[in-house]
Amino acid sequence: MARKSRTKTPIAEQAPNIRKSNFEEVCLGYTVEEGMEEAVRCLQCKNAPCIANCPVMIDIPGFILAIKDGNMEEAAEILGKYSNLPAICGRVCPQEKQCEEVCKLGMAKNFEPVAIGKLERLVADWALENKDFSKAIQSDTPKIGKIAVIGSGPSGLTVAGDLAKLNYEVTVFEALHEPGGVLTYGIPEFRLPKRIVKKEIESIEALGVKIETNAIIGKTITMDEIIEEFDACYIAVGAGTPNFMGITGTSLNGVYSSSEYLTRINLMHSYEFPKYDTPIKQSKNVVVIGGGNVAMDAARSAKRLGAENVSIVYRRSLEELPARIEEYHHSVEEDIQYYWLTNPVEYLDDGTGNLSGVKCIQMELGEPDDSGRRRPVPIENSEFIIEADTVIEAIGQGSNKVLLSTFPELKLNKWGYIEADPKTGITSIPGVFAGGDIVTGAATVILAMGAGKVAAVEIDKYVKNEKQTPVTTNV
Ligand code: FAD
Ligand code: SF4
């Protein structure tokens, strides 16, 4: 242990004063040499806890050992066995709460865990550069069956990739004009470049997966048609419907949901207007409501669009902040201001229907609520005003309803999400499986992928079983 470096191998990043006015990626990634230096820190634990804490059970010591030996090809092979989207996970997974949280090296006094996420990113980026995915193995043997996947976010892409590898004919239906779900329309370029998302999607298409965009299941194609044409289907339509505070002034010009704000920027390229034809407001004072990754992304995007003052208003304190800590640190470096223990109570009208400010109230933390976190309670007579021409509400999303509203046979839970077994993806209807945010509520990329992985196994069992069962007819 004494010879191991206590801290993670430093990684190059764009300087805060430069990156806060461009949309290019903040973290520049390890070189192979830096990765090898970091890989030496891994203890190669038996019963490695990092594996058990990874929702897709990646052989972490295995791929790190290959990096240490300078064998990137082998590292990529190992990673590819477990994840269809490693370059994405290496960038956006909350490793600090999963594999790195339980890393044995990080448990030792004054030692940081191995930089597992950054090593995963290194290997995945190396593979995207150096491997020819167009030569992915596609079997010539007849396909076992036809599967429809509805939604092309990380959950849908994972199930599609795994089923294609099991020799199924898979079609992914996506409502938008680009595949990727939140990876494409939600997470900004400076955290997850779209060229990386595109390349990983291409590697899934190379397995034989067909992706049909502009296909809204429930509108352009019905669920009856899907059930008729396919042997089984997997619903992964996500949780993209924005929630609103519902306070006075919500309809003023300048009040956005984070979904609209980020979709305009990411999917519609509004930051390149007029080259792309979707504009976005040029703001001076921006207030973002919320404390998750979505709030960080909205605030940091607003800064990059040229806003002078960008603040995040969060009703709890830093200790409870749900966003990734790395994103919080990056936001502070980029001059995002924080109002802790604060909640908006009204959006103020400048007299012409435009937003002029946010009336807020200070909060204190009371007894724990159902989530186990201490409930924020307003402090009487503590109201104050923040000047603002733009407000972005990032207070969570609900289930996507377009498909569900046309498919009443499918059982939902009391929050409007699909009732599906988390270990199998089985729903109330035989042959219809579901997973990702539409089952769990807004969660993480890797959990959505994990749901796709278990469902692929279960769909395979279901189809094989159905095909073996002799059809009985009444004579
Ligand atoms: P989604 O990614 O939502 O994909 C669902 C897809 O289904 C969409 O493309 C949608 O258009 C499509 N669809 C919906 N209805 C239909 C229909 N009727 N027919 C056809 N297609 C349909 N997680 C992390 O782990 N790390 C992060 O840093 C992180 N940052 C985030 C930042 C933002 C701004 C947001 C919004 C989320 C973030 N998340 C993050 C959460 C993560 O992205 C989600 O948990 C994950 O994308 C869920 O995957 P999914 O496949 O279930 O759904
Ligand atoms: Fe390496 Fe940490 Fe995993 Fe042990 S727990 S194998 S040190 S990454």
Automatic annotation (TrEMBL):
Parts of the chain that traverse the membrane: none
Domain FAD/NAD(P)-binding: 146-452
Signal peptide as annotated in the record: none
GO molecular function terms attached to this record: iron-sulfur cluster binding; oxidoreductase activity
UniProt superkingdom: Bacteria
InterPro entries in the record: DPD_II (IPR028261), FAD/NAD-bd_sf (IPR036188), FAD/NAD-binding_dom (IPR023753), Helical_ferredxn (IPR009051), SudA-like (IPR006004)
Residue intervals of the Dihydroprymidine dehydrogenase domain: 19-131
UniProt protein name: Glutamate synthase (NADPH), homotetrameric
Species for this entry: Enterococcus rivorum
